[in-house]
Specification:
alpha/beta
């Protein structure tokens, strides 16, 4: 509780800062969307993650899909939907592929007779374990990991220390990781130059050897020890497992409108550590939209709005089971959909001096407004973001949208404004105090304005012929293969034979 009081104090400073503008006087209907109120939803979700940590998961923790934290979070969200007055249901989603979890790990540097624990070490998702053993490996510094960096360096049977430039949410670029393994590395230690010394959980590492992310300060310390010593060794232990037969939930909240045409607002519920920016802030935005539109009489809501708490996607490949089920059933759910809004990390504050501290300014958001083929929707989105002071990139993203909308945009009109480069993402510092309450208010008001704008457009002007799934199994970006999954597609609680 003491730490949360401190967080609340820090948050109070953020509340007074400038992220977005207040609702313009001519749009007083949006003024009731209160960022301080929405920020409390972020803090409540962080509490769920911390209870999971404190119940016996001190290292690998968060609101992890398929765990008891996920169960608590789904119940929490459904209760919020009920309080708002939505029609609710929980849909069980069977994870028909085993999920990875690290149980315990440690890395200790040994040089000149001294042993130094590497506190920031965090195994990359799906990293190989050490089979119950402690490895003792010499460390070789390979800089940026180019072929020139590996030249004249013998890394066979040793651990390599790699610097990722730029910082990313992967253990390293795929070609560099492959190069390290081709040269015979027995372990990969990956650091970056973001500053600070954060434990950072990366997405899945397609490696065959133990792979860890290190904070900047620990990475620099190991590099300097290599420079000062004839030999630096690390002792590595990682106990991890793949758990079968897990499940999660899609949390549905429906606000009926005057017609059976639909608008979807989605937000993924899972995340690492407190997962405040990624993605408690998105869930809070979704709840803010539900509260706003629930105050409007049904006769004035042109379309039914469906709010959907997604099971999650951080356990990528295999992962994102809920969204894959929805895509497989797109004809059933989205044949009359005018808009999908993806509420995903919308309101993080910027850092300065590396990660020396936070500002009260918001991270500029990459945004997508339906694509170039929907110019009217794109204008509605851009005008709304600018009207409410949402900090967005100067132009809409030319690439397909990141995050969950990336699985839907090719057959539904979609909008998202999200930060994909904030320094605290996937780190132990992604706590409520790096989420801006004014930012939550600004983006939620903008999304409400977008929904109102779309509701003045006929469905035929928004929908387009469905194309080919760009992420279908077998493509370079392919996700789950649903071959022999007819029973699961019909009922997500059932099994799939892979």
């Amino acid at each position: 509780m003491a730490k949360f009081c401190l967080m609340a104090s820090v948050a109070a400073i953020l509340l007074s800062g400038s992220f977005g503008h207040a609702a313009p006087a001519k749009d007083a209907s949006y003024a009731a969307i209160d960022g301080k109120h929405l920020w409390q939803y972020v803090a409540e979700q962080a509490d769920i993650a911390r209870r999971y940590r404190d119940s016996g998961h001190p290292q690998f923790w968060g609101r992890l899909a398929g765990t008891s934290a996920d169960v608590e979070d789904a119940a929490w969200l459904r209760a919020k939907f009920k309080q708002i007055g939505l029609e609710t249901r929980l849909q069980t989603v069977n994870f028909f592929a085993p999920q990875w979890a690290a149980e315990t790990w440690s890395i200790t540097a040994v040089a000149s007779g001294k042993s130094i624990p590497i506190a920031s070490a965090e195994p990359a998702y799906a990293s190989s374990g050490t089979d119950g053993k402690e490895l003792d490996l010499e460390v070789v510094y390979v800089g940026l990991g180019s072929e020139a960096d590996f030249a004249a360096r013998d890394v066979r049977g040793k651990a390599i220390l790699l610097v990722k430039v730029p910082a990313s949410y992967q253990a390293g670029p795929a070609d560099i990781i492959k190069r390290a393994e081709d040269h015979g590395a027995a372990a990969i230690l990956s650091t970056d130059l973001r500053g600070g010394n954060y434990s950072a959980q990366s997405y899945r590492a397609y490696t065959k050897v133990p792979t860890f992310n290190l904070g900047t300060e620990d990475g620099e310390a190991l590099r300097d020890m290599i420079g000062a010593s004839a030999a630096l060794h690390v002792k590595i232990r990682l106990d991890a497992k793949w758990t079968p037969d897990q499940k999660s939930y899609l949390v549905w909240g429906t606000l009926p409108g005057a017609t059976d045409e639909t608008i979807y607002v989605i937000a993924h519920r899972d995340g690492f550590f407190d997962a405040a920016g990624d993605n408690a802030s998105g869930v809070a935005t979704m709840l803010g939209l539900a509260e706003h539109f629930a105050r409007i009489p049904k006769s004035q809501r042109r379309r039914t709005i469906i709010f959907l708490g997604m099971d999650g996607h951080h356990q990528i490949k295999p992962g994102g089971f809920g969204r894959e089920w929805l895509v497989a059933n797109r004809d059933k759910f989205f044949s009359k959909t005018a808009l999908m809004i993806n509420a995903e990390h919308p309101a993080e504050v910027m850092t300065h001096g590396g990660t020396a501290g936070s500002t009260t300014a918001g991270v500029p958001l990459e945004w997508y407004g339906g694509g170039a083929s929907r110019p009217h929707l794109q204008k509605i989105a851009e005008d709304a973001f600018r009207e409410f002071g949402v900090p967005i990139w100067s132009e809409a993203s030319a690439r397909p949208p990141a995050g969950d909308l990336g699985r839907f945009y090719w057959f539904v009109p979609g909008v998202v404004a999200q930060s994909n480069d904030f320094a605290n993402m996937h780190t132990a510092s992604d706590s409520p105090d790096v989420v801006s309450a004014p930012g939550l208010a600004a983006v939620t008001r903008a999304y409400a304005r977008i929904i109102d704008g779309v509701n003045r457009m006929p469905l035929k002007d928004l929908q387009q012929p469905v194309g080919t799934d760009p992420n279908a199994p077998g493509t370079p970006q392919g996700y789950l293969s649903l071959a022999q999954c007819e029973a699961w597609i019909a009922d997500s609680a059932k099994s799939c034979v892979q």
